[in-house]
Amino acid sequence: MSELTQQSCEACSADAPQVTADEKQALGKDVPEWQVVELDGEEQLQRVFKLKNFAQAQAFTNKVGDLAEAENHHPAILLEYGKVTVRWWTHKIGGLHKNDYIMAARTDAAYGDMQ
């Protein structure tokens, strides 16, 4: 389990710095199955999770939603039959912050709990 799962998100303001290229590389080692994608000019972390059926995918979606509410940091989630796509990024800064990596690690842990 990544030590990122033990960290808390910090309050983020619109002038908070995005992670640097070096930080992305270092933090990415703790969440290797996540990809950095660019959508609408903003970098985001994205991962597709495979599950057995719709009910299990919905239960996982709800777990991710609970994690998001607990930290007041919310992803984009696409729920499909047997598949959930999650994207984390920090809306206020229009890109990636350490908080996104923390939440990606927590999402991985929640997925691991369902296996």
Automatic annotation (TrEMBL):
E.C. number(s) listed in UniProt: 4.2.1.96
An annotated Gene Ontology molecular function: 4-alpha-hydroxytetrahydrobiopterin dehydratase activity
InterPro entries the record matches: PCD_sf, Pterin-4-alpha-carb_dehyd, Pterin_deHydtase
Pfam families per UniProt: Pterin_4a (PF01329)
Catalysed reactions, as listed in the record: (4aS,6R)-4a-hydroxy-L-erythro-5,6,7,8-tetrahydrobiopterin = (6R)-L-erythro-6,7-dihydrobiopterin + H2O
Record keywords: Lyase
Family: Belongs to the pterin-4-alpha-carbinolamine dehydratase family.
HAMAP family linked: Pterin_4_alpha
Protein name: Putative pterin-4-alpha-carbinolamine dehydratase
